[in-house]
Amino acid sequence: MSTLSKTDHLIFEVPAKSDYVGVIRLAISGIASRMEFTIEKIEDIKIAISEACTNVVLYAYENDDNPGINVTCSIHIDKLEICISDKGKGFNLDDYVEKQEVSQNELGASSLGLGITFMKNLMDTVEIETAPGEGTKVTMTKLL
Amino acid sequence: MLEFQVSTNTSNNQQIIKIDGDIDIHTIASLSRSLSNLIEQNPKQLIADLSSVGYIDSTGLGIFAHSAEQLLKNNGKLYVLSNSDTVRKAFEISGLTKNHITLIQSVSECESEE
């Protein structure tokens, strides 16, 4: 990891549109790759990032005129910390129940509601800060 | 990122849908339409060939879960063909492989169940 400083922070701001979920996924997999994460861990990070961004696209905002998705990566010597936040409607975390069955979402496609389950399974830590009207912030870390 | 493409192939009671590219929120609408068209024909076996898919997340898994349930109504079964550890791991974490979906590594595996 000779070319990346342990103190580097990278900040991305993208519109909350499905078009950009893959772009963020690729950008962060590039960072993880340069940090010399194993391929398996890079794949875990890609899915976790995508799940967090997908949740923003699907649920955070009521219309297209919005502040988008903010993604911050902090490169530490022993881990990658990724924070994905929005200024959307947020939700009451106490009311959240991880879904186990298929439901229809507004795209007319089915979703398992597995996003948070995936993030928790694939990352070393996952912290979710949210409240109705307060936006949502997901902070995840993956150890090298 | 590979360009996303879906192609289909039919033989007897078996339908094969081959997908190329990443399956995520951006590409699921196109995949969902193709799967729905195939399921309307009530195949006994639907094989989703994901051998050229390197990435799938929960939105994509949701589509396959829904498809498997629709197929089951007419005694059809969904097989997912993949040799990718990433793709197979995603299906396994989701729990879908417990009852709805069978992961295979070659088409011959499901023919032998006929």
Detailed description of the structure:
- The complex is a heterodimer of chains A (144) and B (114).
- With 144 residues, chain A is α+β, with helices and mostly antiparallel strands.
- Chain A is 31% helix and 27% strand.
- Chain A is built from 3 helices and 7 strands, in the order E-H-H-E-E-E-E-H-E-E.
- Chain B contains 4 helices and 5 strands.
- Chain B has helices at residues 28-39, 58-72, 85-94, 108-111, and strands at residues 5-11, 14-20, 45-52, 77-81, 101-104.
- In chain B, strand 2, helix 1 and strand 3 (45-52) form a beta-alpha-beta unit.
- The model of chain B has no long low-confidence stretch (mean pLDDT 88).
Essential attributes:
heterodimer, A: 144 residues, alpha+beta, 5-stranded antiparallel β-sheet, two-stranded antiparallel ribbon, globular, B: 114 residues, alpha/beta, 5-stranded mixed β-sheet, 4 helices, 36% helix
Which band does the percent of strand residues of chain A land in? 25-35%
Let me know the average pLDDT of chain A: 85
Count of beta strands of chain A: 7
Q: What is the molecular shape of chain A?
A: globular
Q: Total number of β-strand segments of chain B?
A: 5
Task: Tell me which protein chains meet in the greatest interface and how many residues each side has.
Answer: A-B, 31 and 25 residues
Net shape of chain B:
globular
Task: Give the strand line-up of the largest sheet of chain B.
Answer: 1-2-3-4-5
What is the subunit arrangement here? Answer: heterodimer
Q: Please compute the radius of gyration of chain A using only Cα atoms.
A: 15 Å
Relative helix content of chain B: 25-40%
- Counted by DSSP, the helix tally of chain A is 3
Question: What's the pLDDT, averaged over the residues of chain B?
Answer: 88
User: How would you spell out the order of helices and strands of chain A?
Assistant: EHHEEEEHEE
Strand content of chain B: 25-35%
Unreliable stretches of chain A, pLDDT < 50, 5 or more residues? Answer: 100-110
Terminal residue distance of chain A: 11 Å
Structural class label of chain A: alpha+beta
How many helical elements of chain B?
A: 4
